[in-house]
Design brief:
mainly beta, eight-stranded parallel beta barrel, eight-stranded antiparallel sheet
């Protein structure tokens, strides 16, 4: 088409019901103006626009709508519902979209008048493949005057596209509905915009797989949803790239908006990049009739949330759905500083991974809420950070702190009990039991005294106790920790948990500079009989202040009924020496029979536990093989403790019914034999002498392929037993519990603070001052295996080598001329900067295999 003809075509032509002479049969594009469309915002252009579209469809042409505001009074249709004649590659395009009536100068706007319409424009079932609408704004003159802005009314199509299309005041901006076809997939929404809508995208077409949204924006009404997949039998799927949106807030109240509501999609749901403001809920999936896991990814998003603690919408809500959710590299920020992020699962097998995210301006760290049937759920926080709120201020201002791998909201909530669960077959942190003699006594029979450190109080100093294999009464469990006890009326037993001295500097965590101790008690009771009241409590051994308690009333049941006990004591560091006291008390006038499967106390942030339930809980399987029981057995299977018992005592560990434990001090398994505890060497197999890794003195590596004339293995002979990967640094913040190495010594931080600007800790005592930090000497640093000897060459950052029986890591690449020396924090060598990481591990062969 010549330039003169092109300009003539795109000019407004006289009114007419059929194309004028300006539209030639050989021209590929139809101008709607040639059919009488005026576009002045007042004239009803419905018939003219529909005639232009029908003519273009019938003649295999595209349809152009020139600049202007075209008023219509009913839905425009592309194609029809009844024709069996399919067509493809149709294009309806304008001169540019307009978001609303106040903008879009020079653009093309189609305005729908009235209410109760299905859509502003709809593509019918015979619009087959690769058709397109572009550069047009669609508006409702009345709020929600149409259910949809642009609607794909059936699913015969594939590969349609909307480019630079805007929708204003429709109830739903874009929709794809289930129809008679088996396609409906791969729609491309590019640079599309919606404003004042209740939903950005809706579909109930399960077979319509994977729609694609790129560089789209939305201004959503309060209470609205951006993406709603309302499916019956799986399918669906969306990819959303660079989505930017904001939710409406009325009178500064939360927007109550949701990013994604998923009803039974079994495909991938992916969000990459973009910023969403005033968001209340990220993801919801309630009920799943499919057997497939949903995989949802939220990556690189900047979210400004307005979810308050009183909101009924959880930030993530999964119910009866085995979803896999990944939230990666996102910033999640509160709007006012009073917001709360929670992850709520119910009766699910869900897996939620939050990785590399930053939580800012929230009232608390994220909360995980689940129920008993969520025993197989997993919620993980990895490499995340959060700002800690400062009381009395509108917004938190303190430094970011790392979140625990498994998080529950005990921090800052003194004595609060939360329901929490994680996967039953994955260990929650290191095993730990701070109780001495959790089975009360090794003896069996009547009128017994509990073993030390248990003490009796009340009306009787005696109890009856029976093991699981006792010939008479016995607990309904084969657990080695199981014990059936009978407590006299108005009597009880208690134990001071002396492994945690409440006056000690070694605390569980610090909040706003205040050190806190954390003790959690957990137990499973399989029988409670005798028409009794039994109280479990955690209190202060000196002041008797109660931190947490629960009162059980007899409700006799069979072995399929259990009671779960969870108590939490969050205690600020005390001035006077005292301990958390566990009390088990029968306050009734009858003998109480209590059947323990196990009980444990822990100081971990992240023990696997469930909330106490006053009612018996019915397990899916018999409790003895349930995942909940297995989780606790896993925790108890190998105690994980320091070599010293309590805060000051140096006597060996002699608790549990165990003659073995994993030393928290040396990370070695330690066993009892001949009246003393023996640390066992670490052992493994390998095909050759190790060339990497950290190895303790005495570690044994057995040859995995021994032959005659070779050796059985290697033993590491360089002194040093303690593993530590973090290097001490000057003027750096260290949290309590952090383990570092300095020169060849390992220290554990027992009081938060900033390290000094001098030489760092060097003493070998229980308390070593270093700036505002207090360190405890642990032992000598384990050696490092390294096969590469230093030589003058170009080194890259991260490379390791050894020189003079010391191992160094290159932290700044460059040419090395002289090599490092000594054990200082770092050493310059030309352009190279070296970091000392430990002595060289030297391995000696042993066990020559003779012919």
């Amino acid at each position: 088409m010549e330039r003169r003809q092109f300009l003539k075509f795109f000019s407004v032509s006289p009114i007419g019901a059929v194309p004028t002479s300006d539209t030639r049969a050989d021209e590929p594009v139809v101008n709607a103006a040639a059919f009488g469309a005026i576009g002045n915002g007042e004239h009803d252009d419905t018939i003219a626009l529909q005639n232009a579209i029908d003519y273009a469809v019938a003649n295999g042409k595209s349809c152009f709508i020139p600049p202007g505001t075209f008023k219509i009074t009913r839905t425009l249709s592309i194609g029809n519902e009844t024709s069996s004649s399919l067509f493809q590659a149709f294009k309806l395009f304008g001169a540019g979209k307009a978001l609303d009536r106040r903008g879009g100068i020079g653009g093309t706007v189609i305005q729908l008048d009235g209410t109760g319409h299905t859509a502003i424009i709809r593509m019918e079932k015979n619009v087959w493949r690769r058709s397109e609408i572009s550069d047009i704004g669609f508006e409702c003159l009345n709020p929600s005057g149409a259910t949809y802005g642009v609607l794909f009314s059936s699913t015969e199509f594939s590969g349609h596209a909307l480019r630079r299309v805007s929708v204003y005041q429709a109830n739903i901006a874009f929709g794809i509905l289930r129809g008679t076809g088996v396609n409906g997939e791969f729609t491309n929404f590019n640079n599309c915009t919606a404003s004042h809508v209740n939903k950005f995208f809706y579909t109930n077409a399960g077979q319509a797989y994977v729609q694609y949204f790129e560089h789209c924006t939305c201004q959503l009404n309060a209470g609205g949803t951006y993406f709603h997949l309302d499916l019956e039998s799986g399918g669906g799927g969306i990819n959303v790239i660079d989505f930017n949106a904001t939710g409406e807030r009325i009178n500064d109240r939360p927007s109550n908006t949701s990013l994604l509501i998923n009803n039974n999609s079994s495909s991938c749901l992916n969000f990459f990049g973009g910023r969403i403001e005033h968001l209340t809920q990220l993801y919801e999936h309630l009920g799943d009739t499919t057997s497939l896991h949903v995989t949802a990814i939220f990556a690189g998003l900047q979210l400004t949330v307005d979810r308050l603690a009183s909101s009924t919408k959880p930030f993530i809500h999964i119910n009866n759905a085995p979803d896999i959710i990944s939230i990666n590299s996102c910033t999640i920020q509160g709007t006012s500083g009073a917001e709360v992020i929670n992850i709520q699962t119910r009766d699910s097998w869900a897996y939620v991974l939050v990785k590399g995210c930053f939580f800012d301006a929230l009232s608390t760290t994220p909360i995980i809420i689940s129920n008993f049937n969520d025993m197989f759920n997993q919620v993980h926080f990895e490499d995340c950070k959060s700002t800690v709120p400062v009381p009395g201020r509108d917004r938190p201002t303190s430094r970011p702190v790392p979140l625990e791998k498994h998080l529950h909201n005990e921090i800052g909530a003194i004595g609060r009990r939360k329901s929490f669960s994680e996967n039953g077959w994955i260990q929650s942190g290191q095993p730990q039991n701070l109780l001495v003699k959790p089975q009360f006594t090794n003896a069996n029979g009547r009128a017994l005294t509990a073993d030390v450190p248990w003490k009796h109080y009340g009306s009787s100093n005696l109890m009856n106790a029976y093991d699981w294999n006792y010939i008479g009464p016995h607990p309904q469990s084969s657990s080695p920790w199981a014990k059936l006890i009978e407590l006299a009326p108005k009597s009880g037993v208690y134990q001071n948990i002396i492994a945690t001295d409440l006056s000690s500097d070694k605390v569980s965590y610090s909040l706003n500079g205040i050190p806190f101790h954390l003790v959690t008690y957990q137990a499973m009771i399989t029988r409670l009989a005798g028409n009794v009241n039994l109280i479990f409590s955690l209190s202060n051994s000196l002041t008797n202040e109660i931190y947490d308690e629960i009162d059980f009333t007899d409700n006799s049941g069979s072995e399929d009924f259990v009671r779960l006990v969870t108590l939490v004591a969050t205690v600020a560091r005390q001035v006077s020496s005292s301990y958390v006291r566990l009390k088990i008390e029968n306050i009734s006038s009858n003998w109480a029979t209590v059947d323990f499967s196990w009980q444990l106390a822990s100081s971990n942030y992240n023990p696997a536990f469930l909330a106490s339930d006053l009612r018996p809980t019915t397990l899916t399987n018999k409790w003895a093989i349930s995942a909940e029981n297995a989780r606790f057995w896993h925790r108890l299977s190998l105690p994980y403790k320091s070599d010293t018992f309590g805060s000051e005592s140096t006597r060996p560990l002699d608790d549990l019914q165990s003659d073995i434990y994993l030393s928290k001090t040396t990370e070695r398994v330690t066993v009892q034999a001949n009246g003393r505890w023996w640390p066992m060497p670490r052992m493994c197999t390998a095909q050759a002498e190790p060339a990497a890794g950290r190895w303790a003195h005495g570690d044994l590596i057995f040859n995995s392929g021994p032959i005659v004339g070779e050796y059985l293995g290697w033993v590491q002979v360089t002194p040093g037993n303690i593993t530590a990967e973090q290097h001490w640094m000057r003027k750096s913040h260290f949290d309590a519990g952090t383990r570092v190495y300095h020169v060849d010594r390992v220290y554990e931080c027992i009081r938060n603070g900033i390290s000094s600007d001098t030489t760092g800790p060097t003493e070998t005592s229980e308390r070593v001052a270093d700036g505002s930090c207090i360190w405890k000497y642990i032992g000598t640093l384990a050696a490092v295996a390294c096969a590469d000897v230093w030589k003058p060459k170009l080194y890259a950052a991260g490379e390791t080598m050894h020189k003079d029986e010391n191992v160094y890591e290159c932290v700044n690449s460059g040419m090395s001329f002289y090599g490092p020396s000594g054990t200082d924090d770092s050493g310059a060598d030309g352009a190279v900067i070296w970091k000392y990481i430990g002595p060289l591990a030297i391995f000696k062969r042993f066990g020559l295999i003779s012919p």
